[in-house]
Amino acid sequence: MALLGRPCDANGVYLPTGVNPDPPLEPINLAEPFEDVAQFRIADFLFRKVEMSQGGIDELMELWTLTMLKHGDFGPFENHDAMHKAIDSIRQGDAPWKCFVAQADTNLSPNAPNWQRDQYQIWYRDPDTVISNMLANPDFSDEFDAAPYIEVGQDGKRRWCDFMSGNFAWRHAGAMYVGVILGSDKTTVSVGTGNVEYHPLGHRNAVMPIGFLAIPKGDRKYDDDPAFRIFKKRLYHQSVAAILRSLRPAMTQPVVRRCPDGHFRRVIYDLASFIADYPEQVLLSGIVTGWCAKCTALSNDLDGGGSRRSQALTELLLEEFRDDGDALWYNYGIDKNIQPFMYDFPWADIHEILTSDLLHQVIKGSFKDHLVEWVGEYLLQSEGKERAREIMDDIDCRIAATPLFPGLRRFPQGRRFKQWTGDDSKALMKVYLPAVADYLPEDMMHCLASFLDFCYLVCRTDFDEDTLAAVDAAVASFHHYRMVFITTGVRETISLPRQHSLVHYRQHIVDFGAPNGLCSSITESRHITAVKKPWRRSNRYNALSQMLLTNQRLDKLAALRSELATYGLVAPNHPPPPTPFDLENEDAGAVDDQVLAEVKLAATHEHAYPRSLERLATHIQCTNLPELTRRFLYDQLRSDADPLSDTISVEDCPEILSHVHVYHSAVATFYTPSDVSGIRGMRRECIRSTPSWHKRPRRDCAFVVEDDDQPGFSGMSVVRILLFFSFVHEEITYPCALVWWFKKHSRHPDKKTGLWIVKPEVSRGQPVITVIHLHSLFCGAHIIPVYGPHAVPHRFDYAYSLDCFRAFYVNKYADHHSNEIIFA
Description:
By secondary structure, the chain is of the alpha+beta class.
């Protein structure tokens, strides 16, 4: 039966092609249960946006009522209770929390440990209700696919991007295929000396928590107790199976659900993916730590090859070795005591749907916890303890000396801080190679560069066959060059599950689309809104029930706001999820404009500068600014038959009589296919040229397009922006930049680092400075000094890095745009 998401009526009867959905019945009061939209917006503002305390709401309502009494009216709510009751009465997004209790056994001896006698509460929401609410959300009307699809590029090659473009959705196609993408991640909230751990189980498509799993605690003497370990694992699986049980009927028989476009469709549910870090993959799949959850490769030689691991194979081995648990454990990496929750559901295979975790397994696990640590061990072995410490301190100074760039986190003390997060590891990746290049052998640098290339390749949103080949090449190169850590004595062997996960990424992309659509950074982003913020709003005592109520109210407000937005009564409120690489970004952000690339001056010019070119030249100490600007204007106006400006006298160039306006920044808007931004990856970033930015001068760099026919950086140059300004000639405004040119050190990237090297261009001992049109700029460029063999002075100020060094690496890891568009 080929059922591919055809619209139907509420009874499941298919509609003729082209029939529009019936409009929903419009209530008399769209903002119901609120009196009007204004009252809803007040509740939304107080509860969601400013998170005002209950006492603060009561005081505000009292003051509001006092001001309204003279008009014979009252405030919008009597007190916080009235506001909360109104929120609780919202029908949209209603998915109440429920609870069931689990216990190890009811027939226990008096001496049984506490963990066996304790009762464990598992809080959950009916996932069928949650999914139905998601499907009916009109916010997603332009962002969902009713059926799997295959995308083919103009070159005839297949392309992969989101989940529905992958093979997995095709293999499981049904009515309207609704792949349920799960993720779970333990988080801790703490205050004072106490701590409470919560294990939120979320599912994605607008990430919604559907369960808080219990985490049994026992005395220290039970830490290594096999019975306690097995109990915790079984409790986890049985809890997840119980939470998801309402989805089972619709996994074999289609059910009718309203979709974002207003149509009803017959849908089939399927457990499509589970996002989890390696320890949780071990728990979910029932394997032994050190083995792979995706294949049968031996734990002591993970990259030596193995067949696909499956539930069918596990069942066969369990039957074959039912009386020999040691053989299962040591020879096949199977824990016979654990039955994964997926066994309770049709079609699903936990080994197939486990998706590689880019954030924790690769970026933090393999890069920070493995490669960076190995580099430190190599320096200790090769240089000795005292010299290694000096080098590590200098590497920290080099990292701290990195020039600013939008979206790039600074490390003022290098790597010297205690608690590393996945975000810290992602930020370190962007600046690490130049910092260590002068201290590591070439093969070690090739290993690091290959690993970074892999990370940036798999972080893309769109893949084709050439990209998959590049992924394979990066993995092969990494495997080849990482042997340097064995030959130098840092490692005896390398058989690590997190690094091994790299070999499975190609199949992951083919099956599930882009990995950054199934990354733990998505579920982790809900820790703040689903756990940590609600925890802070609670009274800290038996906080979970309070947190759940807060979550439920926030969901209801968001659902009603989405519905009101469809009528144009409020602005939509759906910021993009965090991108795996660009964060904490005051100089960049998502936009909805659709252009390839453009650069515009800031909206407001600076008023403290002279208005004539001659006086401005004196002010900025660039005496030839008038001549450079006149030659620029001549080139803008000349025909193809006229000579170039540098071949004629400046007296033959047009004069500029208008006032000149100076700007401290320009805004670059460009298409970034792998950044989670506005419409399909539009991004905006600020390029600055200012004498004072946080009490320091800042003159950013940018890419200039010189030859459109050359691919990537081959047709570009780097310039440093010394001044943004504009003038008017014959009623036409010319936005300009005074720039210092950098020239390529070679025709090819540096052999050791894989990065292009540029140097400030000088002619007859003077910097090569020109005026260019702002439209010549493509986007911001990040360059990092080639530090050389000498140590960077302690406490060197990063603001002067671009002034104090003679050569610079062009950082292709600064952001996705640099990596994917310029260096592809």
